[in-house]
Design brief:
Dna Ligase, domain 1; 27% helix; 39 strands; BC-like_N; eight-stranded antiparallel β-sheet; D-amino Acid Aminotransferase, Chain A, domain 1; 6 domains; alpha+beta; Rossmann fold
Length: 660
């Protein structure tokens, strides 16, 4: 028996919070690790102890095995839970834990190795009789060999990196004339991402579903499966929505796929939680894709339909106990759907984003679960994966779960940084998804031009103008019951104008705000008057208002000068008052202080002290979340101070240089 009473969680964010909570409930002493960027993160505060393991970059902290092992030694930890990502599928780390006398809560290093290379894994699965996609998976990697194999397979085919995953090193080839280019680009990307340029080729299964089976094995030779999850809604081969069970799988197909998954795990003496992934064709045939030798991001949907705590099960198995249930004991009840809330710019090809979560209000209600590691005011760093939360809804049937999830998304508020909440809502409410017909081609087919959220409504404009009026009054130190203003009337009505240039295609819409008395406003939009009463501030950034006799809640924040973000009925709008912007420009021709717009690295510094610059001159380039941000001069003058150099890491708001 591998008895232990303390667990170090070698991860961060929502999965670290998730593991720590279950471990604490079961009586384990919990230890968190954190980088300098995560010093105040929720997983750090939740754990019994926490150890700083280095600066923000992952290679110097969460991906450094020696720092993790040193933290375990310092805190006398007895076991390590790797979560997912980072070192969770690193066989060398699993070995190092064992050599250090630590229980690695996961499979053996040999099992991780066996499934860590897609080519080797596929060869093993063919030997075990698991259905595999026709293709080429041999170690010989010469271009001539690969081209000959491709000709035998035929198009369309997939070129895939043998190591790693996440869609990197993957190319679809629909014409053999394009094969050479696909091989070169996939190999280069794979080498950069995984340190290995080995490739495999597979016949492309057109518009399949991505279906995976949760498996568990113990040290006593028992292996079971806990049903399947449908993860077909993806973009760039990254999962966005997951559900259990698969809406189109018959009971016979479920049993056959479950048996194949169990055989795959049994063939490598698998211990712990793992996931065997398959492609499901339109004809009902399925093929082995890969095996993830860890807990999956989407494990909550399996928990909700089985009633099992998978982290608790991992801990029991790691202790050397036998599985507490047999295959016949596994029963699936109801339906569950999960969406991944990312900090990303949905309108800009879903590029990762960073910023401050000025408002974070997770949903609640029957059948709703939220796994997250976020608090209001927290900075979402560019150094890590942009996943900030998972929203999961369950119900007795798929439609109830889907409807609950849509409501949960509408009542979720994350203001202050770009995120994909509204995109997720449009996916969940899309007729194709609602009918259970989404395949891996769903996003490309239903959003062929990318994603564009609905434009702000008239209600958004009215609310935004009133909010900005109140904020201006607060900043001016003016009480609501202003002598000579509140309740005042005379020959001329006093009103404050607001204009929002991006409000409509015709060039903007203006709103005039007049305060009639305390918390009562008259708002004029397109020559129509509206009455708004501010009923209550239910909590910071949340309010109850009455607009023309209609009461409702709203969430808001003020991201920057002249800006207001307001969310109503699940739709958020970021509005910029062009009148205040114009006044600011008239009073200030620009700033001579240049600051970092977000956490990142100084990729290039194009000026030096004493140099003359003109308005618009490129001063520096900041790299954050794999994007380049070019900083230009707002005023003409002389560079008087330079505080950073190329290659340095900088925090959001840090002063980079000054122009006099």
């Amino acid at each position: 028996m591998n008895r232990f009473s303390s667990v170090l969680v070698a991860n961060r964010g929502e999965i670290a919070v998730r593991v720590i909570r279950t471990a604490r409930e079961l009586g384990y002493r919990t230890i968190a690790v954190y980088s300098e960027a995560d010093a105040l993160a929720p997983h750090v505060q939740l754990a019994d102890e926490a150890v700083l393991i280095g600066p923000a970059p992952v290679k110097d902290s969460y991906l450094d095995p020696q720092r993790i092992l040193a933290a375990a030694q310092q805190t006398h930890a007895e076991a390590v839970h790797p979560g997912y990502g980072f070192l969770s599928e690193n066989a060398d780390f699993a070995r190092a834990c064992a050599e250090a006398g630590l229980v690695f809560i996961g499979p053996s290093a040999e099992a991780i190795d066996a499934m860590g290379n897609k080519g080797a894994a596929k060869r093993l699965m063919l030997e075990a009789g698991v259905p595999c996609i026709p293709g080429y998976q041999s170690p010989e990697q010469g271009d001539a060999t690969l081209q000959a194999a491709a000709a035998d397979i035929g198009v369309p085919l997939m070129v895939k990196a043998a190591a790693g995953g996440g869609g990197r090193g993957m190319r679809l080839v629909e014409n053999l004339d394009d094969l050479a280019t696909a091989l070169a680009s996939a190999r280069s990307e794979a080498e950069n991402a995984f340190g290995s340029g080995e490739l495999i080729l597979e016949k492309a299964v057109q518009q399949p579903r991505h279906v995976e089976v949760q498996v568990f094995g113990d040290e006593h030779g028992n292996v079971i499966h806990l049903g399947e999850r449908d993860c077909s809604v993806q973009r760039r081969h990254q999962k966005v929505v997951e559900e259990a069970p698969c809406p189109v799988l018959s009971s016979d197909q479920r049993a056959a796929m479950g048996r194949a998954a169990v055989e795959a795990a049994r063939s490598i003496d698998y211990i712990g939680a793992g996931t065997v992934e398959f492609l499901l064709g339109g004809d009902g045939s399925f093929y082995f894709l890969e095996m993830n030798t860890r807990l999956q991001v989407e494990h909550p949907v399996t928990e909700l339909i089985t009633g099992l705590d998978l982290v608790a099960l991992q801990l029991r198995i790691a202790q050397g106990e036998a599985l507490p249930l047999s295959q016949d004991d596994v029963s699936l009840s109801g339906h569950a759907i999960e969406v991944r809330l990312y900090a990303e710019d949905s309108e800009n090809d879903f590029l990762p984003a960073a910023g401050t979560a000025q408002r974070w209000h997770p949903p609640s209600g029957a059948g709703v679960r939220v796994d997250h590691g976020l608090v209001p005011g927290q900075v979402v760093s560019p150094f890590y994966d942009p996943l900030v939360a998972k929203l999961i809804a369950s119900g007795p049937d798929r439609e109830t779960a889907r409807r609950r999830l849509a409501r949960a998304l509408r009542s979720t508020a994350l203001l202050g940084l770009p995120n994909n909440r509204e995109f997720l809502l449009d996916v969940i409410e899309h007729p194709v998804f609602a009918a259970g017909e989404a395949t891996t081609a769903f996003i490309a087919e239903q959003f062929p031009q990318g994603y564009r959220p609905p434009r702000p409504t008239a209600t958004h404009l009215l609310l935004g103008a009133c909010l900005q009026y109140r904020e201006q009054a607060r900043q001016a130190g003016t009480a609501r019951h202003r002598t000579g203003i509140g309740g005042w009337s005379g020959n001329r009505r006093l009103s404050t104008p607001f204009a929002y240039a991006d409000a409509d295609k015709d060039g903007g819409t203006s709103v005039a705000v007049e305060e009639r008395c305390a918390d009562h406003y008259c708002l004029t939009l397109a020559d129509t008057e509206h009455r708004l009463q501010w009923l209550a501030e239910t909590e910071p950034g949340c309010a109850r208002v009455d607009l023309d006799g209609h009461q409702f809640d709203l969430v808001y924040s003020f991201p920057g000068p002249g800006e207001v973000a307001v969310q109503w009925r699940g739709r958020a709008a970021l509005l910029c008052n062009t009148l205040s912007a114009a006044l600011a420009l008239a009073g200030d021709s620009g700033s001579g202080t240049v600051t970092a717009p977000m956490h990142g690295s100084v990729l290039a510094l194009n000026v030096s002290e004493g140099e003359q610059v003109e308005v618009g001159a490129e001063l520096a380039v900041i790299e954050a979340m794999k994007m380049e941000h070019r900083l230009c001069a707002e005023i003409a003058g002389t560079v008087s101070r330079v505080m950073v150099g190329a290659g340095e890491q900088v925090a959001a708001g840090a002063v980079l240089l000054e122009i006099t």
